[in-house]
Specification:
The protein is α+β, with helices and mostly antiparallel strands. 30% of the residues lie in helices and 18% in strands. Helix 4 (193-199) runs parallel beside helix 5.
Length: 238
């Protein structure tokens, strides 16, 4: 990838913990407001008809499975890219939107931070329990051409991290380490893809060291999936 493209990545992907706290406060505030409105409706039900906690039309059910994941605000600093294809249950390839329609576009491999999906059968991997299902679900969630929003986590260079020449963190296979969001059409609701995967039981939450902005949310999502025996937790005897 050329230096012009990477300069856009580096400038667009700057994020700090304050942004994550802002997103968390937004979701928490939304829940508190909904709870208060529901309580008010219950207390006044004897005299007036209960009103919906959110005005009709403000909540739009996304056209994809979320397993109950709550939406986030637009991720600060996130850059929009297009899905080229899904490699497996936690890895995708993306291209720049201006390259849509290019028969041979330059693509970037993306490894989603915070989770580990079971392997599917491939040239260099052996099939693991629920690997095929995890890949199939991610393919349905992110079909080719889907716009995704990519956001870096911790970009401070230390001994436990590897960065490419343009200052972006990569793993041992030179895949960029980022968080991936998808937006529900016609709304300002963004869903953290790894949270959806964890809630569905398609991945195992994994420690990514300093890349921990969404660690608590992902662990909570996995706990819910385990309790409900969803996905690999019910199928694989783990």
């Amino acid at each position: 990838m050329g230096p012009v493209i990477f300069s856009r990545w580096h400038s667009a992907f700057t994020i700090r913990m304050g942004h994550h706290m802002q997103l968390t406060r937004t979701r928490t505030s939304w829940l508190l407001i909904a709870m208060c409105l529901a309580l008010l409706a219950a207390l006044t039900s004897s005299t007036i008809a209960a009103q919906p906690s959110t005005p009709e039309g403000d909540i739009v059910e996304p056209p994809f499975e979320t397993f109950g994941a709550l939406p986030w605000q637009e991720p600060p600093g996130a850059a929009p890219w297009l899905v080229e294809d899904v490699t497996d249950g936690d890895t995708i390839r993306v291209i720049e939107s201006e390259n849509e329609g290019d028969p041979d576009p330059w693509w970037e491999p993306i490894r989603m931070i915070g989770v580990d999906a079971p392997e599917r059968d491939g040239p260099h991997t052996d099939e693991e329990c629920y690997g095929t299902e995890a890949s199939a679900f991610l393919t349905r969630l992110l079909p080719e051409g889907t716009t995704v929003y990519l956001q870096v986590d911790d970009d401070e260079n230390d001994a436990n991290q590897t960065f490419n020449d343009d200052g972006l963190e990569v793993d041992d296979f030179d895949r960029l380490l980022v968080h991936v969001f998808i937006r529900a059409d016609g709304t300002d609701d963004y869903y953290l893809v790894t949270e959806v995967l964890a809630l569905g039981g398609y991945v195992d939450v994994k420690d990514y060291g300093d890349n921990s902005y969404f660690a608590d949310e992902l662990q909570d999502a996995e706990d819910i999936a385990r309790d409900k025996n969803r996905g690999l937790w019910g199928a694989c005897g783990t």
